[in-house]
Amino acid sequence: MFLINFAQQIKCIMENIFGFAGTALVITGYIPQIYHLIKEHCSEGLSIKAYLLWCVSSLLFLVHSFIIGDIVFQFVQLISLISSVIIVIYCRKFKDHYCVYHLNKIKEANQKG
Q: Which of 23, 32, 71, 87 is 20 to 30 A distant from 44 in Cα terms?
């Protein structure tokens, strides 16, 4: 009995470790995008429609995660939803604004074509 209970505890701990590690990677993936948007006021290459879909999907998954009671899934979906909302807000705020890097790329493309 002790070994079965111990194995279940180890399994639960491992699930949480992998879940929170995945969540950390999700956060790490959003940080550069949000940082660039806010610091450079540049929305080049971002699709508001795509991020709105991410918002809706994150909201649906967040509701699902509460229904099934998965704390890791709740956390990652909450982070994803907040990050996507921030990106949508700043994309709208800085629509058609470009940082120096992207402005130069646009100029180069226009000179070539």
A: 23
DSSP letter at 1 equals -
Buried b (16+ CB within 10 A) or exposed e, 94-107: beebbbeebeeeee
CB 109: neighbour CB atoms within 10 A? 9
Q: Note the pTM of the prediction, 2 decimals.
A: 0.80
Question: Which of the pair, 15 or 92, is modelled with greater confidence?
Answer: 92
State how far the Cα of 54 lies from the Cα of 26, in Å rounded to an integer: 13
Domains and CATH numbers, the chain: 2-112 (1.20.1280.290)
Quickly list DSSP for 67-105. HHT-HHHHHHHHHHHHHHHHHHHHHHHTTT---HHHHHH
